[in-house]
Design brief:
By secondary structure, the chain is an alpha/beta fold. It has a single domain, classed as UDP-N-acetylmuramoyl-L-alanine:D-glutamate ligase (3-Layer(aba) Sandwich). Helices cover 40% and strands 21% of the residues. It contains 13 helices and 13 strands.
């Protein structure tokens, strides 16, 4: 597959997730903003890790979760990201390659350790994320292989990439190469606080560089600084080719020109952890999109993929997504 066509190449912060259950009291004692992602330094990461309860470690990162989901659906995918030659870097590389995802970036031999995200899951299934970017912050244009980008129908970028300075240049290089090759560029807005930090840049990106936009309700409202979802819907119309907006239990809305598809959320017995829900929605949608299934069917596949990951702890599917989708769509 190393020379063949790809459905998607994802570019993101290569992060190992460390997940643990916590209550609201823990969040309060440690001054954690509930339900959002905050960037922290190495010292803060060490102190929070020491305070957290029993945890599981799993390769994560927004775009990493998405390409893992794509692989589970049968889409050939690749990933670009930076890890260090340490234990967590080895975990990340093994996990993503074991799924069949191409990941050929050599590990750094010096500098910061592999990034990690400490995720505190409260009983209401909300996740509060404290992220130490570590080696991921070194991602730069030299990590973007033009030949790899040209092989993929879609280059998928996570909004979190806009935080590390050099990643911005990598982001724009990848988008330019993709468009020169006649390919598509997709962007996830990632987090409302991320949008607040980079609103003007994100509006410019959406208008000039992005073909497929993923956002949840809070993120799209933050992007356009409007008080309700309908107003945001009207603002984003026409700014890029396809817009897929998720609304939790309300499902999702997919827009393309004059097309509007309202997709119901897939029922789940119990919501355990919403970590990775948006990432797996993007995986399902991009799988359907690159297979030419049409927007409504792509949206349904996206909802099925998202429903699987919120039923258990962790951001990666535990059941074979391809089989799950076939069962639900039968």
């Amino acid at each position: 597959m190393a020379d063949g066509l790809l459905d998607v190449v994802g570019i993101g912060n290569a992060i190992v997730d460390v997940l643990s259950h916590a209550d609201d009291g823990f969040l309060s004692r440690h001054s954690l903003a509930k339900g959002v992602m905050s960037l922290i330094d190495a010292r803060r990461a060490a102190s929070l890790y020491a305070a957290m309860g029993p945890a599981i470690e799993a390769s994560g990162g927004s775009a990493g979760n998405t390409v893992a989901g794509l692989a589970g659906l049968g889409s050939p995918a690749a990933y670009i990201g930076r890890v260090r030659d340490d234990q967590l870097g080895g975990i990340f590389r093994h996990d993503i390659q074991s799924l069949g995802v191409e990941f050929d970036n050599p590990p750094a031999t010096e500098g910061p350790a592999t990034g990690r995200c400490l995720i505190f899951v409260t009983p209401d299934a909300q996740r509060t994320m404290q992220t130490y970017l570590g080696a991921a912050i070194e991602l730069g244009p030299e990590d973007v292989d033009p030949a790899l980008i040209a092989r993929a129908q879609v280059t998928y970028l996570e909004g979190y990439l806009w935080d590390p300075p050099r990643a911005k240049a990598a982001f724009l290089k990848a988008a330019e190469v993709a468009h020169q090759a006649g390919r598509k560029v997709a962007l996830s807005l990632s987090d409302p606080f991320c949008v607040d930090r980079h609103r003007a840049d994100f509006r410019d990106l959406v208008a000039r560089h992005v073909d497929i936009l993923f956002a949840n309700e809070a993120e799209i409202m933050a992007l356009y600084e409007v008080p309700d979802f309908d107003a945001a819907l009207q603002q984003v119309r026409g700014h890029c080719e396809v817009v897929a907006l998720t609304r939790g239990e309300k499902g999702s809305v997919v827009l393309a020109g004059d097309e509007v598809h309202v997709i119901d959320a897939e029922p789940v017995p119990r919501v355990v952890d919403t970590t990775g829900a948006g990432d797996l929605y993007a995986a399902g949608f991009l799988h359907g999109y690159t297979q030419g299934y049409g927007l409504a069917r792509a949206g349904r596949i996206a909802s099925i993929a998202a429903s699987e990951v919120i039923g258990h702890l962790g951001p990666r599917p535990e059941t074979p997504l391809g089989e799950l989708v076939r069962q639900r769509l039968a």
